[in-house]
Amino acid sequence: MADETVEEQPVETPVEAPRRKGGGIFRIIKAVAFITVIVVVQIVAASMLAPSAKDTEKLAHELATATTGHGADAHDEHEKAEKEDHAAHDENLVEVELGTYNITRFNPATNTTLAIDFELFGTVLADDKANFEHHFESSNARIKEQITLTMHSAESADLTDAGLGLLKRQILEKTNRALGQPLLKEVLFSKFNFVER
């Protein structure tokens, strides 16, 4: 056998088509836009399904009555009381003075002192004014103590609330409890100031 030289033929490899660079960026932009749309739809749906403050308060009241053992009768009585309160607001209400308060509270954790000064008024039905004044005189010390304790337990967020809603509700509830009757219909602050030093 003779020495034969075999020439190797070069193998042709197929040439790949150049990749488009814009396609990858476009896919990323589409994915981000799709995710953004999904998030926005979820936020809108959640905001539409979230309960209002009134619904939350009603639910909290229902849970509170359920834990204290009151049933549906208590809920009906509460709704009736709310209707009576609204009717009472339509009737003739008069203001009564509940006192001027200068409360100082020391916070040992932050080593600061908080001074709270305010005048407190309430509203009662004109027909109940004499009855209120009698009960207020006889339980004046207890009422002032409850108001002072409420202000001592107040958080900074409660004091900076524009309407002072939580403080008003707490003082109204505690004052009526000290009076022994729900004579006071509303609590009003006048000249409310607080300073932290």
Which value, in Å, is the CA radius of gyration?
Answer: 35 Å
**In percent, how helical is the residue content?**
40-55%
CATH class of the domain at 93-196: Alpha Beta
Number of strands: 3
Q: Mean of residue pLDDT? A: 80
Distance between the termini: 112 Å
Query: What's the total helix number?
Result: 7
Task: Please write the string of helix (H) and strand (E) elements.
Answer: HHHEEHHHHE
Q: Would you kindly provide a brief summary of this structure?
A:
The chain has helices spanning 22-49, 53-68, 72-90, 129-138, 140-152, 156-160, 165-179; strands spanning 93-107, 112-125, 186-196.
Structural description of this entry:
It is a single chain. The chain is an alpha+beta fold. The protein has a domain at 93-196: Band 7 domain (Tetrahydropterin Synthase, Chain A), CATH 3.30.479. The chain has helices at 22-49, 53-68, 72-90, 129-138, 140-152, 156-160, 165-179; strands spanning 93-107, 112-125, 186-196. Strands 1-2-3 form a 3-stranded antiparallel beta sheet. It starts with 21 loop residues before the first helix and ends with a strand.
